[in-house]
Polynucleotide kinase-phosphatase
Amino acid sequence: MTDADRTEHENENRNENRNENRNENQNPNQDESRNGNQHRHEAPQESPRQHQPQPNPPQARPLPGPEPASRALAVPDLSLVVLIGATGSGKSTFAARHFKPTEVISSDFCRGLVSDDENDQSASGDAFEVLHFIAGKRLAAGRLTVVDATNVQPEARADLVRLAREHDVLPVAIVLDVPEQVCAARNAARADRAGLPRRVIQRHQRELRRSLRHLEREGFRKVHILRGQEEVESAEVVMERRFNDLRHLTGPFDIVGDIHGCRSELETLLGRLGYALVRDELGRAVDAAHPEGRTAVFVGDLVDRGPDSPGVLRLVMGMVGAGHALCVPGNHENKLGRYLKGRKVQHTHGLAETIEQLDKEDAAFRTEVGEFIHGLVSHYVLDGGGLVVCHAGLPEKYHGRTSGRVRSFALYGDTTGETDEFGLPVRYPWAEDYRGRAAVVYGHTPTPRANWLNNTICLDTGCVFGGTMTALRWPERELVDVPAEQVWYEPTKPLATEAPGGADGRPLDLNDVAGRRIVETRYMGRLAVKEENAAAALEVMSRFAIDPRLLPYLPPTMAPCATSTADVRGEADGGYLEHPAEAFAGYRADGVREVVCEEKHMGSRAVVLVCRDETVAADRFGVPKGVSGALYTRTGRPFFDDPEMTESLLQRVRECVEGAGLWAELETDWLLLDAELMPWSLKATGLLRKQYAAVGAASGAAFPGALGALEAAAARGVDVASLLDRQRDRAADAAAFTEAYRRYCWRVGTAAADGAGESAGQQPPGLGALDGIRLAPFQILAVQGRSLAGLAHTEQLALIDRMIAAEGARAARDGATAAEGAADRPGLLAPTRRLVVDTEDEASVAAGIAWWLDLTADGGEGMVVKPLRALIRQADGRLVQPGVKCRGREYLRIIYGPEYTRPENLKRLRIRHLGHKRSLALREYALGLEALDRMADGEPLWRVHEAVFAVLALESEPVDPRL
């Protein structure tokens, strides 16, 4: 149903629906008790025809004259049972005999709770408040509840009926109509009631008599009247399963989305699902069975708009009748059913076409259709409660409940009261707030493709509008779809738009990220994003970031290891601010025994999304032709201004993935990589010129002259030795500072190919426009359908080593025919050296420290220490830091300044407050994992973007940038 359908239906039938809901609350055989065709799987104690509505159900209306001496009292297994009878009629004895003690709430007991006297009538007001509170809590928890009180007054019963309706359960009345003398004798036999005046019993009896014929109109869905002691004593309470309760059916199921008269596509879809069609003598499909015993489940909207609604009905009714399928009603069936009953409805939104098609069928078929629709149940709870199927969706509080309100939501959903640009009502996004255990599968709202969202999925993919017809295999959670044969009906609102996220039917919205936000994550629960941080992120995201469709992840910040508090090597010229001993000790304290030390490349953090080809990028990410992936910074900005440069790099990575055989091995058409892109100067040119080179240039200009003057003064006998030594040390520190950042800077592209600006750290040319650029991937974050963030880091690096080896093999092949020496030129991909350390083995720890010292002595930035296994938690359940950086002494000159190693400076700098940085790193890590999981689960773009945006917003939190 489109939103226009809903508007039209609500406008023309609001009063009629209100009356129908009122009738449903009064008639015990309506709503969830009206399934005349598909109860092969339900309530085995009754035959199917017993579920058809009856004008005067014998168990629901008191009839004059004597009733049988023994009878079964049908009570739904989730209901509010109200015992009605005069004092002394035996209600408490009856309740104790037929119900569990915990199911019964007695007014006398509640009166005793509040007053210490069960007969203190002055405490009745408080007692009934307690009774209603307890009953409400039980009903909210889905527990059968029995109220043991006289309940002979209409106002007392009205409160209980209202309570049942609030919790969407059926109110059931059991009346104990016992003679006055029997009640009097029983009260006289009780010491606490021996003095009860006879007039009280007489008043109760009069009020009971006045109530008997009005209980149904008061809202009781079942009314059982027991007259006399013999009937009370011989009665048996029989628990009935609700007709929406099919938890005993475990499938497997094939759940089919909205059909709308597209019979041919339905037959094709059933064939793809493995069903064998059964046809009648005229060749019409009248049944379909699966050889493996699977059951089809239809989410409604079988009719209207399409070319053959009768054919769809004939097939679905045949499958349901044969026990091969279940079906819930859609709003279009509801409207057709009202038409077939002779109600006045507007022949719009496809109903006119259905009526015209049905007029060609015989009267018997139309009658059968009316009975079938009338017998449909609003929703089903299946597979042990793990699966709920309905038409328009259903919040968790309505699962398994029975009321007109539940039926209305299951048929139509809900709206916010607003209208969109097409003049259609905006639907309330109940699925965005859903957190239930049961998977909810529904249709109703056309969407370009089916996506899981908070354990819910909409299967209406607009077949009648030219989209697809989709089915979900359960419990496999596999989607199967077939394309529409043509556009059968032009939609009022396009299925998809060009806006980011429009291919999912839900474009990105400012309200998704603006203001203070709470993001639910699987690894750290609810994480808050401050309003001011969101505003800062919005500025970056809207002005500078790449297309959000290609931005499924942002890497988290990384905290440094704990500050080294001593000179670990005993050197006289100062100690270390960061040292691996602290990193190993920290992880050992967290219970992590094995860690991997990875070489830290001095470049810029880069995320690479590489697709197998442009078609994959267009189909999976919805981007225009000519784009095969993305290369972006840790703030979501494109690395290169030139798209051709990006495509050249992606092509090189693509070839390496192909050469390593990872497309097939990982069963994917795209990869998401976390990496470092070098040189640092490639993206930090402005920072280098304004901040670092300026210091180097100033020191290079100032110190030679100053030293020369001081040396000349010393030669003349002036006592400047102390000042001269101090200035020489400063000049040495400045030179070390300049050398530190120069190691990470070299020319790339044409300048590199010409050999300009080569330095000891520079790589020779060999990649054309990419000459001098090195990409060091260190993690495969995600592939099609799954996140790989939990894969051990050594396994991750082994996969990446294969990519690097594939590039080397290709270079060797090319070198055989290319210019001499071409095969010796470095490729694009750079390896990441690593070492595994046992934090509880002193020799292993010492080897790790020595390895780090060797790395940093050669001018390396340092290393990152990570738990060997990912996603590690501490004993208290908190996440362990996913990695800590341990930077070398010379590299830290860039961060803390040329003279930071002097003892007086180290003493001051060792006072570092790392708590906020560590908290920030963990929160961003959890949000990144959440984004990857949402993408792997196939959730819509706005859901993935919510977590990505939150990472960027947290980057605005104030924290020492040197950390």
